[in-house]
Amino acid sequence: MEPDGGFLRMFYLMGDRTSKGAGLNGRSGGYTHVTMGLTLIEKLHENICRVFLGDEQVVERLIVCLLAQGHALIEDVPGVGKTVLATALARSVGGTFRRIQLTPDLLPSDILGVSIYDRDSSKFEFKRGPIFANVVLADEVNRTTPRTQSALLESMNEGTVSVDNETLVLDRPFMVIATQNPYEFEGTYPLPENQLDRFLMQISTGYPSPEDEARVLLERPSDTVLPDLAPVLTHEQVIELQDAATNVRLDSSLAKYIVELATATREHERLAVGISPRGALALSEVARATALVRQRDYVVPDDILDHIDSVCAHRVVARTGVRGGDVRVAREVLEE
Length: 336
Prior knowledge:
The protein is of the alpha/beta class. The chain is built from 16 helices and 11 strands. It has helices at 5-9, 40-49, 56-67, 82-92, 108-112, 146-149, 151-158, 193-196, 210-219, 221-224, 235-246, 252-267, 277-293, 301-305, 308-312, 327-335, and strands spanning 72-75, 97-101, 113-118, 123-128, 135-139, 160-163, 166-169, 175-180, 201-203, 271-273, 317-318. A 5-stranded parallel β-sheet has the order 2-5-8-1-9. A two-stranded antiparallel sheet has the order 3-4. Helix 3 crosses helix 13 and helix 11 packs across helix 13 (277-293). The radius of gyration is 21 Å and the shape is globular.
């Protein structure tokens, strides 16, 4: 089956931008010429890789998570580039970006905002917190208390914030990128399973290859490139790409395949908790976004399988009691 040329053509936009507000289809005249070349998604990938010198599959997964309108949890040992990766993505897309350094003494109001009494108007005025941004980096999310962790829950699940008997809708695109240290490290508060389930993907950066690590030492991209990293996508373009991802076709046979995978985890003797319907839905959304990244308007089985560990491993609980799921057990079960 050949890709729908009309569907994909709008992502092949290159050329000099002469005015702001040009959409993906270039109809506003914001592009002086259009040539077949790098897609907008590839430009985003390359921009992030200017700073993050590591596994490019990790970069792809983070982009897929963005296009699937999900939130990402990046877990690994300190010093492997978790914060650099998240910041590079945030600065590569237009819109607002806020970073929250989570600590044990942080309060929910430090994230959501607080109402302050205005003496001139004799009214309380709500001052919005850092959660009201397009991309929010929650650094070391498991170092703060469960009370503060839960402040992120409604925002991540509903895209809203409830304060002072009022519900405020967060602007699109909205993405939380959280980093955390492994649970065995001191001073961590493990995320509960219901909050882990709100993250579309859990990603591990891993150590860079010796060649990439040598480049980090020589180029120092976090000091030389990251401070001046410019956006390559507007937030309007991100929204259009997200909407396009929802229109990628998932065949009924592949939907049945995802359900069978989820059912297998629920019935497997090595798992205490399998993939929920929300997890199966997440897997389908990631498959659609993956197909879009790979320049297709339809899903193939590899789109489902290539990111299955990042989508599903933190949603299952092994009978060994490993908190947050067991990647090895999840992979073995899903391969059967």
